[in-house]
Design a protein that fits this description.
heterodimer, A: alpha+beta, seven-stranded mixed sheet, five-stranded mixed sheet, 17 helices, 22% strand, globular, B: alpha+beta, 2 domains, 5 helices
């Protein structure tokens, strides 16, 4: 075998991280190597942590512990900014690491929630991570003050240096970190006023970029452990089917094959998968493809047939009410004009670039996994459940995710990897799904249809609105205990009234309508749904915002003015909408076709204006999207811009190409040739406007780079072009151009 | 058995001839910067250079190589991230999750090898890699920045 100089990275996973704790993997690269004249601290014992959030080495390297997962959304950098600012740390000496879920359990959840989804990464932890940093800073200052025999209140801190001005003494965080760690934490700490922020709010470069440019960033699929074997899996292709038989002998003599095994269904009865364990993944997958397998049972589900159920739901008598007001029936009775439109959202796969995978090592008294997961603690529980070992004897080493988008909150692939490792006690086994498995066995964005009816009076005013959503509830399938009296209020993301549920207060509708009804006829197919980047806000925005344009056109009114007439109670929503209109040149007679939208969700206000052209042969081109977001305080503006740009790629890919269909219970689109994703040729120019915070500091919501934070506008930029499906988009475009 | 020249070193590996170059690079050589994304040459995460041309290694059987070709992976593009594409990518902070970026960078570097001043139409035609995080807007800017640096 060649010595390429890179094989030494085998065994890169060590039990001891930079801090001397049993930390899994450094989450990002360390600061630059020791400078030539730097002091040598190698004789000193490593410093203990200052507290759970902060470790400072003798050389002033500040290691910030990040509990949430990094999957591209920039949370790692954003959280580090929050901590570093409150700590008065030197940003140039900041690095990060992931504590493990096992450590969190052992330390009574000192790092609290590890789950990373629903735009909670920064929003949900910004208070306590800043408080943790403020406590660490207070301890560092106290340690310095004790050393100097001066009051701590006379000391100041900046850039990891503590100063006592009147005596002219200074020291660095690294020099007092050990003494600080011996002190009792302060009982109360005050965090900075936003006016004092120096690192928060700055467009800092990501902390995890350098390794991603040279191929050194290790993803789950790249994990290599000494003696590790590789596995490829095939799960029953038909919904609900089980394994009937397989002929292991037919492939056992193929190159590299170690074992052919069947696996039980992590979520149901019996066995539903086969896997081949081999020396390399390629050989495992080759043998798996050659393995004779028979399946039995399953559900003959067809998306084409299910459409009739969705259509039934559009006009059914019974439906759950999500939001209503006034007398909608009366409004339609007295309408001068009634407009109606129907839209649909097909099933979508998350299609993370890195297929699902986990590496597991099982012995009779310990089970460890190396895993890209959005929910480290759920993964830990899954390891315990699958291995049968007490949770204290299990551990999860989190690894950067090659995309998540909601898919990697589910532990199915974790359980499978543990089952495989149990077939090979003492030998690490890496399970990597093929792209086909990843496509077939998703947790799919549900399919729904939206039927919207609007009543206009003789003056073109909207007097009544009824939005009927028909289709699948995510909660009914995944978290039925979260339904309330059978209602899945999350179905109404972005459309809810205030006061329904404190957890959904960030999902309220900002339009004011006199007479309206928004309801949901739940129609659940046997397809397992999932939380997909932006979740239900995506299609809800399409249903409502497409229709606002339909109404404006029918009323002969300007779509901007028509919307503004119903945004008088939400200056924030009106502000983002006006911002995109102003930037785009809305209303100018320049021949450019423009569409607008505005939405509120996950605590942020967003609006977009799309500029499009249709060629003479009917081809759609999205030239430019202007997007405005008001996320409260923006932790890292350049990463918000990146999220906004990226959200359009994800959303437009779904709108223009993405559709998962089922025939006879089997997914038909099994790779990127049939489940396409946007390429650069179709990518519009994107201009992002981040509007100033409009909330007082005591009511801040920091969504910034927290994953889905900026995604809520993803499909909406095009919403006023008419429909989710491209053909309808084009017909609307022609209308728009003719005006 | 196959003999390959990868990042300037000649190596011999014990593999079946139909093994895709991708898996030889990842599993026999341990160079995991080159990624698996689709296995059918659709997404481009597996892009490497063969004699300076960008190819999708997931469908390129190792048996099709003579052993004389210069194969370059992301690890061999530069010693210190100093390739103009890498520098442009750093300046614009392009990667998000980053999984597709080795392939994206190699695709762009391969294009610039043979077309140092591509038009937007050239970019549209030649850069067809998938990025689900959605870095495509910055990728186009990054290509233009890299051209300025070259």
């Amino acid at each position: 075998m060649a010595d390429t100089g890179l094989l030494s990275r085998r065994g890169f996973i060590v039990g001891t991280g930079a801090t001397g704790l049993t930390i899994g993997i450094l989450a990002s690269c360390s600061p630059s190597a020791t400078e030539p004249d730097a002091p040598d601290y190698s004789d000193l014992p490593p410093n203990p942590e200052v507290n759970a959030w902060v470790h400072i080495d003798h050389d002033d390297t500040v290691t910030i512990r990040i509990a949430r997962s990094e999957m591209g959304q920039g949370t790692l950098t954003g959280l580090a900014q929050l901590v570093a600012d409150e700590l008065d740390a030197d940003w140039d000496k900041v690095t990060t690491e992931y504590p493990t879920p096992g450590q969190n359990l052992a330390r009574e959840r000192v790092w609290r929630d590890f789950s990373t989804g629903g735009s909670q990464g920064i929003r949900g932890s910004q208070d306590y991570v800043r408080e943790g940093a403020a406590a660490a800073k207070a301890m560092l200052i106290e340690a310095a003050a004790n050393e100097w025999g001066v009051p701590a209140s006379e000391c100041t801190s900046a850039d990891s240096i503590i100063t006592h001005a009147s005596s002219g003494q200074t020291t660095t965080y690294g020099k007092v970190a050990n003494a600080a760690a011996q002190l009792a934490p302060p009982l109360e700490v005050a965090v900075k006023d936003p006016s004092e922020w120096k690192i928060i709010g700055q467009p800092k470069k990501r902390l995890d970029t350098a390794e991603k440019l040279v191929g050194k960033q290790v993803y789950g699929a790249d994990v290599q452990l000494d003696g590790m074997l590789n596995a490829s899996i095939k799960q029953a292709p038909k919904i609900g089917a089980s394994l009937k038989s397989f002929d292991a002998a037919a492939v056992e003599s193929m190159p590299g094959v170690k074992k052919v095994v069947s696996l039980r269904n992590p979520f149901g009865e019996g066995e539903n998968a086969v896997a081949v364990i081999a020396d390399t993944w390629w050989r495992a997958n080759q043998a798996l493809n050659a393995l004779p397998v028979e399946w039995e049972g399953g559900v003959d589900f067809s998306t084409a047939e299910f459409e009739a159920e969705l259509d039934d739901g559009l006009t059914a008598e019974d439906a759950f009410v999500g939001n209503a007001g006034g007398d909608v029936a009366g409004a339609f009775e007295n309408a001068a004009q009634v407009i109606e439109a129907t839209y649909n959202m097909p099933f979508q796969n998350h299609a993370c670039m890195e297929p699902m995978n986990t590496t597991a090592l099982y012995t009779e008294d310990k089970c460890e996994i190396w895993c890209p997961t959005q929910n480290g603690e759920a993964a830990l529980a899954a390891v315990s459940e699958a291995s049968g070992l007490p949770i204290e004897q299990c551990e999860v080493y989190k690894i950067h995710l090659g995309g998540g988008f909601g898919r990697r909150g589910a532990p199915d692939y974790v359980q499978q990897a543990v089952m495989l490792a149990m077939e090979m006690p003492g030998t690490p086994v890496k399970l990597l799904w093929s792209r086909e498995e990843d496509m077939i066995h998703g947790f799919f964005h549900p399919t729904t249809k939206g039927r919207v009816r609007g009543a206009l009076d003789a003056d073109g005013n909207l007097t009544g609105l009824h939005l009927r959503i028909s289709g699948q509830s995510i909660l009914a399938a995944l978290i039925p205990q979260a339904l309330r009296d059978g209602v899945d209020y999350a179905t109404f993301q972005g459309l809810l009234p205030s006061g329904v549920d404190p957890r959904l207060e960030d999902q309220t509708m900002k339009y004011t309508f006199d007479n309206f009804l928004i309801d949901h006829a739940m129609r659940n197919p046997p397809v397992r749904p999932g939380f997909w980047r932006g979740v239900n806000l995506n299609q809800n925005a399409i249903y409502l915002e497409c229709f606002m344009d339909e109404l404006a056109f029918a009323a002969g009114r300007d779509p901007l003015e028509f919307r503004m007439a119903h945004l008088k109670d939400s200056p924030e929503a009106a502000a983002v909408l006006q911002a995109v209109a102003d930037r785009s040149g809305w209303g100018q007679d320049d021949g450019i076709a423009r569409g607008l939208c505005v939405m509120h969700g996950f605590g942020a206000y967003v609006a977009a204006c799309a500029e499009v052209t249709v060629s003479d042969d009917g081809a759609l081109k999205i030239d430019r999207i202007i997007a405005a977001t008001d996320p409260g305080h923006a932790v890292n503006p350049q990463q918000i811009e990146a999220q906004v740009e990226g959200s359009f790629v994800y959303g437009l890919s779904a709108m223009l190409y993405g559709e998962i269909t089922f025939e006879n219970g089997e997914v038909q689109e099994q790779n990127f040739d049939t489940f396409n994703s946007m390429r650069i040729a179709a990518m519009p120019e994107v201009e992002t406007i981040i509007t100033p915070p409009q909330k007082p500091p005591d009511g801040i919501m920091i969504v910034s780079t927290s994953g889905i934070a900026a995604i809520r506008m993803e499909l909406k930029g095009l919403s006023s072009m008419g429909s989710l499906r491209c053909s309808m988009v084009k017909s609307r475009l022609k209308m728009a151009r003719s005006r | 058995m196959a003999t390959l020249k990868v990042n300037g070193e000649t190596v011999t590996v014990e593999v079946e001839d139909d093994t895709p170059l991708l898996w030889v690079i990842r599993e026999q050589l341990g160079l995991t910067g080159t990624k698996y994304g689709c296995g059918i040459a659709q997404c481009g995460t597996c892009t490497v250079h063969v004699d300076g041309f960008a190819i999708r290694s997931c469908t390129y059987p190792v048996g099709a190589l003579s052993g004389e070709e210069e194969i370059t992976t992301i690890e061999g593009l530069s010693d210190d991230a100093s390739h103009p594409v890498q520098e442009a990518w750093a300046e614009l902070d392009i990667p998000q999750c980053g999984y597709c970026q080795p392939g994206m960078i190699m695709a762009v570097a391969g294009m610039l090898n043979n077309n140092p001043n591509p038009t937007d139409e050239d970019i549209d035609a030649e850069i067809t890699n998938i990025c689900r995080c959605g870095t495509l807007a910055r990728v186009r800017k990054g290509i233009k920045r890299a051209v300025e640096k070259s």
